[in-house]
Design goal:
This protein is mainly alpha-helical and 55 residues long. The chain is built from three helices and no strands.
Length: 55
């Protein structure tokens, strides 16, 4: 959810979310969670670009 919010709002950087993951996720799940964060961020950026009408 944080990654989607970051992608849409621009208020939080992807880098800051990735850096925060190890602080909140058990060590054995960090890599998988970082991958999920990046995928969610990139997916929302794509959706955002597709859903905007041309200028």
């Amino acid at each position: 959810m944080a990654a989607a919010f970051a992608a849409v709002s621009g208020l939080v950087s992807l880098e800051s979310i990735v850096k925060a993951v190890p602080e909140y996720v058990p060590k054995k799940y960090v890599e998988a969670n970082i991958k999920a964060v990046v995928e969610a961020y990139e997916s929302m950026k794509k959706i955002q670009n597709v859903s905007r009408p041309p200028a």
